[in-house]
Design goal:
alpha/beta; Rossmann fold; GMP Synthetase, Chain A, domain 3; 9-stranded mixed sheet; 17 helices; 22% strand; globular; disordered C terminus
Length: 563
């Protein structure tokens, strides 16, 4: 029988120490197929690493940076820091050298744990505060400016309002800021995750997202630790070749994901198979046959995921509407969540049995959500208030004042609305919203969803350039070439003719492109018409939650009024 655990006090120190005591011999973390580390093992290693940190001269409240891919030792380092009154500064593994240097300098971290695979990223970085670099793989000291002294770990009682983490977000709008999260922020969110989907010590999580991202950290690490569940990590990136055998070996009950992973599966396994011929397309468009097809595909997909999955959480970005319809009709156990790093991260969610198409679900228990200055359609900025709202941005009071009101409301920067049952629907980021010629709000995310459902499209970005809407589109070129009549045949037959073949290829492409824009605009309303499509020659750069870094593609845009 599931029973909710409510840690007291709401601190990570209390959570991990209680779990080590209650689940001492239970498997805690491991690599897939690797030697498991029990909660007791974790406790012993935490003691060793804690002693090492204080022997290096650290004191309560000092910052310790952590740069590495997911691994059991990442968990050891993390809890060794947060359980001893120190502040953790997790760094996303895909940060550039410049971003890592910015984090180390701005945070004033004194110790850095870095994995061997990422050590090259810190070469040459100088920081007056940084005294010691420790190799995460085996906890050996790589370099240190201080001499170790023998000390006993001080008996520090961590408080709920103490800062426990400073998390530098890899935002879609530019330079990252350091989000200060307290023990209460993270512990509260982890505890309330139970209300969306209860777990116990028999659950097995397969971790796919970076532990340095708040989503995976709070719900994919702290939450299972509360209940004595176990977490498995991949030693390689979660590509199909690494993920499929891992799913078979682990047979997880819980997985957290971002939309991109499931969207790729849908396009490769479902959409591509039923777009090959006109007959198949007609069959697939018929609701009854589509549901039957989805139900069959869903059973196969469930087996692929190990056959005992209870919860496939999707968050970090908006899920494609067709993909969600597939998951719902396939009866796949998916769940939806919405939040930000600043809210540790969960604000709203819907468990497996309570999802509603395109909704991010209900507010977390104990969290208030409201729509600020709603328009006639009920759309306005989402504001949040609760125990999970951050303390502020580190060393940036100006940015903090922009998003936090005096009475504790946090401005999310997202447009949204509620339905009659208080379910939240996200419209898009306020900064991304484009003002139409007649003053209407145009939400590029909605247009991108429609574009991404077009045949051959991998992903897209809608921007305003010179007063018009422009779509930047990444295509599946291999699939496109296979399906454009004679496209490849022309090349094979006439490649020796040089310019002639290029001309004919270009004509074929131009014909397809014109048809693509015409077909796309037929599905868009008057104010959302696309003027031009730019084909990208490489994938968009993304954040850790796989959102496109829009600022990289808009900073050179010239914005004028629509003529």
């Amino acid at each position: 029988m599931h029973k909710k655990i409510e840690p007291s006090p709401l601190t990570l120190q209390s959570i991990i120490n209680t779990s080590i005591s209650n689940f001492y011999d239970k498997t805690c973390v491991s690599f897939v197929g690797g030697k498991p580390m029990t909660y007791g093992d974790l406790g012993q290693k935490m003691k060793e690493i804690g002693e090492m940190l204080f022997s290096l001269g650290l004191e309560s409240g000092d910052k310790v940076a952590l740069l590495g891919h997911n691994m059991p030792n990442w968990v050891v380092a993390y809890f060794s820091v947060v359980a001893n009154g120190l502040i953790i500064v997790p760094i996303l593994p895909d940060f550039t050298r410049e971003e890592i240097e910015n984090v180390l300098l701005h945070s004033g971290s004194k110790v850095l744990f870095v994995s061997e695979k990422l050590a090259s990223k810190i070469t040459g970085i100088e920081s007056d505060d940084l005294t010691t670099v420790v190799k995460l793989d085996d906890f050996s000291v790589i370099s240190s400016k201080v001499e170790k002294v023998n000390v006993i770990i001080p008996d520090i009682t961590v408080k709920e309002d103490d800062i426990v983490a400073i998390i530098y977000t890899s935002g879609t709008t530019g330079r990252s800021k350091g989000v200060m999260l307290t023990n209460r922020n993270i512990a509260f969110t982890a505890m309330q995750s139970y209300t969306f989907h209860p777990i116990d010590s028999t659950d097995i999580f397969l971790s796919l997202l970076p532990l340095s991202h708040t989503y995976e950290n709070t719900i994919g690490l702290i939450y299972p630790m509360i209940y004595g569940a176990s977490v498995c990590y991949l030693e390689k990136p979660p590509t199909a070749s690494a993920l499929l055998p891992a799913l078979s070996a682990v047979r997880p009950t819980m997985i957290l994901s971002v939309p991109l992973i499931m969207e790729k599966l849908y396009k490769a396994q479902i959409q591509s198979k039923f777009m090959k011929s006109r007959i198949r397309r007609i069959i697939y468009k018929t609701a009854l046959f589509r549901i039957i097809i989805h139900r069959i595909a869903g059973k196969k997909l469930y087996k692929t995921f190990g056959g005992r999955l209870k919860f496939f959480g999707i968050g970090g970005a908006k899920l494609d509407s067709r993909v969600e319809r597939f998951l719902k009709e396939a009866r796949f156990p998916y769940a939806i969540g919405y939040g930000l790093t600043e809210t540790a991260p969960l604000l709203a969610g819907a468990g497996v049995k309570y999802t509603k198409l395109q909704s991010t679900g209900y507010a977390v228990q104990g969290v208030e959500l409201k729509i600020n200055n709603p328009d006639k359609k009920g759309v306005g900025e989402i504001l949040a208030k609760g125990p999970n709202v951050m303390l502020g941005y580190y060393k940036n009071s100006e940015a903090t004042e922009e998003v936090l009101t005096n009475d504790g409301w946090f401005h999310t920067g997202d447009f949204g609305r509620f339905d009659s049952k208080n379910r939240l629907f996200i419209k898009g980021r306020m900064k991304n919203t484009i003002l139409g010629a007649s003053g209407e709000n145009i939400y590029p995310e909605d247009i991108e969803t429609i574009i991404n459902n077009q045949r051959f499209v991998v992903e897209s970005l809608v921007l305003e350039e010179d007063g018009y809407l422009v779509a930047k589109v990444l295509l599946d070129i291999d699939e496109l070439e296979k399906n454009i009549e004679h496209f490849k045949a022309i090349y094979e037959e006439k490649k020796e003719k040089g310019r002639q073949v290029l001309h004919e290829l270009d004509e074929k492409y131009q014909a397809w492109s014109q048809h693509f824009v015409k077909e796309l605009n037929a599905k868009l309303n008057r104010i959302s018409q696309i003027k031009r499509v730019d084909i990208m020659d490489k994938p968009f750069e993304k954040t850790a939650s796989q959102k496109i870094k829009r600022f990289l593609y808009t900073k050179h845009s010239k914005k004028t009024s629509t003529k």
